[in-house]
Specification:
Number of domains: 1
Shape: globular
CATH class: Mainly Alpha
Number of helices: 5
Number of strands: 0
CATH architecture: Up-down Bundle
Helix content: over 70%
Distance between the termini: 41 Å
Order of helices and strands: HHHHH
Strand content: under 5%
Oligomer: single chain
Radius of gyration: 15 Å
Length: about 130
């Protein structure tokens, strides 16, 4: 369980990093506010995962996932958002893979909140993407 939490913490840190950079590049307005809100969600889940790992008696590592660099290496905002949606969906899948029996009630509540926020954020990101074919 700790390894799962460490992986998610690494991914959430990557989310903070790329969303901060994207928000910094965005002009003032709705999209900048949106990206900042997403970054804040990722930061909130970093803090929560950090606490959960410590509560299980482990030390959270300091790694940041390579995902941030992959997103930021893309030139276009649309391409970045598409990859960001994929990253958010990855987190949802990883949460879904955690056996319920391995979680205590507080962890179940935390992961349910984290999952729901990522699902909502995926839909919100899609509103900024051009319509598909």
């Amino acid at each position: 369980m700790i390894d799962r939490m460490q992986d998610l913490l690494e991914a959430e840190r990557a989310g903070v990093k790329c969303l901060q950079a994207m928000a910094d590049e965005a002009p003032p307005g709705e999209k900048k506010d949106f990206l900042t809100s997403l970054r804040n969600d990722e930061g909130r889940f970093c803090a929560g995962l950090y606490r959960l790992i410590e509560a299980r008696g482990a030390k959270p590592h300091n790694k940041v996932g390579a995902f941030a660099e992959k997103v930021l290496a893309l030139a276009g905002e649309t391409e970045r958002l598409v990859l960001l949606v994929k990253g958010q969906a990855w987190v949802v899948r990883k949460i879904d893979e955690i056996p319920q029996a391995e979680m205590n009630p507080g962890e179940k509540e935390f992961f349910a909140d984290m999952r729901e926020a990522h699902v909502v954020n995926i839909d919100a990101c899609r509103t900024y993407l051009p319509p598909g074919p």
